[in-house]
TrEMBL record:
Alphabetically ordered keywords of this record: Hydrolase, Metal-binding, Nucleotide metabolism, Zinc
UniProt-listed Gene3D superfamilies: Metal-dependent hydrolases
EC number: 3.5.4.4
Boundaries of every Adenosine deaminase domain copy: 21-368
Protein name: adenosine deaminase
GO cellular component, one term: cytosol
Pfam families xrefs: A_deaminase (PF00962)
Enzyme class: hydrolase
Length: 373
């Protein structure tokens, strides 16, 4: 598994990618546990794991996650959520999550998770949100004492196959003054469109709560259309299958001529951010229509066409990755340089669920950091 001690230098520029200021918009709390923490929490709860050695457990997660199926990929979360059922467990995971983001150069992170999956041992929905926020706050304070700065927010998530959308939406709104910055739906995408939770999205709209929706990962254009229409999504979680709405008309030695369908045109023209996660998209088969290597990912095509692409990790444990590593992989695949990396971070800052003034401040931090690189 990638560690914070790994160095990534940008070819040509020689810049330390890890030191660059970054924004993380799509990072799951239950997908970012440290293997050692998972082992220790499981021991406290007398839960059996497939391995009790850090390296062996990390390798197990990567093997299980490289299935090419989102459904199979999601099964690994049975273990991580199992140890996140107590105040202490939730708080520790959240605190370490912030530490790991900061160590990777992240200056703003939105952390998504589904409270309904963490009440098996008697905590209420409000109590689990409070426990996670306490951990996040402690993590931010720890980072401050280390002489660095990071800001984080919760994205409260409803499971799309369940029927608790409105309840979770109301939960998100109740805690908007205690760290919650937005709402999401996640889980098995195919067969569970955003329209199933239309009542929840209607309520969120009346409360002016920002929404992102997992769409265009394990299902196609109709799922994206539902996210935009029923969910009023301001961002698309992954969104890579939006490329199904692009038609390559012709190519020559210098240019590729592409026409956009109505969904793609809408997303690009309104600069709806795409929360792409390259390694995860390979693991779950999200880009299977285009190939099975990172160079086949439609990320570069979307970028060149002017879509607001952002780079994310999705689940650092399952993918054995960091945001630094994802940027490095994209650079290797598409020849990106420091200027491209800056665009990706500014895209993420523009799409963040923050007030305008805060987004502008975030953009300034990014520009200053890249100027110093």
């Amino acid at each position: 598994m990638d560690t914070n001690s790994t160095e990534y230098q940008l070819e040509g520029d020689g810049a330390d990618i890890r030191a660059l200021p970054k924004v993380s918009l799509h990072d799951h709390l239950d997908g970012g546990l440290r293997p050692q923490t998972l082992i220790e929490l499981a021991d406290e709860l007398d839960l059996e794991l497939p391995a009790t050695d850090v390296e062996e457990l990390s390798a197990w997660f990567e093997r299980q996650s490289n299935s090419g199926s989102l459904v199979e990929y999601l099964k690994t979360f049975d273990l991580t959520t199992a140890v996140m059922q107590t105040r202490a467990g939730l708080g520790r995971v959240a605190r370490e999550f912030v530490h790991d983001l900061a160590a990777d150069g992240v200056i703003y992170g939105e952390i998504r998770w589904a409270p309904e999956q963490h009440i098996a041992r008697g905590l209420s929905l409000d109590e689990v949100v409070e426990a996670v926020q306490e951990g996040l706050d402690q993590g931010v304070e720890d980072v401050r004492h280390q002489g660095r700065r990071i800001r984080v927010g919760q994205l409260v998530t409803a499971m799309r196959h369940a029927d608790r959308g409105l309840e979770i939406a109301e939960l998100a709104v109740r805690h908007r003054d205690n760290g919650v910055v937005g709402f999401d739906i996640a889980g098995a995408e195919a067969g569970f469109p955003a329209s199933r939770h239309r009542t929840a999205f209607d309520f969120l709209a009346t409360q002016f709560m920002p929404v992102t929706v997992h769409a265009g990962e394990a299902d196609g254009l109709e799922s994206i259309r539902s996210a935009l229409f029923d969910g009023r999504a301001l961002r698309l979680g992954h969104g890579v299958r939006l490329a199904e709405d692009l038609t390559i008309e012709r190519q020559d030695d210098e240019n590729t001529y592409v026409s956009l369908g109505p969904v793609a045109q809408w997303v690009r023209d309104r600069q709806i951010a795409l929360e792409t996660s390259p390694s995860s998209n390979l693991q779950t088969g999200a880009i299977a229509a285009w190939g099975d290597e990172l160079v086949d990912h439609p990320f570069d095509l979307l970028y060149q066409l002017g879509f607001r692409v952002t780079v994310n990790t999705d689940n650092r444990l399952q993918s054995g990755t960091t945001l630094t590593r994802e940027l490095s992989l994209l650079s290797d695949a598409f020849g990106y340089d420091l200027d491209d990396f800056e665009v990706f971070q500014l895209n993420a800052a523009a799409g963040a669920f923050l007030p305008l003034d805060d987004r502008e401040d975030l953009a300034e931090q990014i520009q200053d950091g890249f100027d110093e690189a």
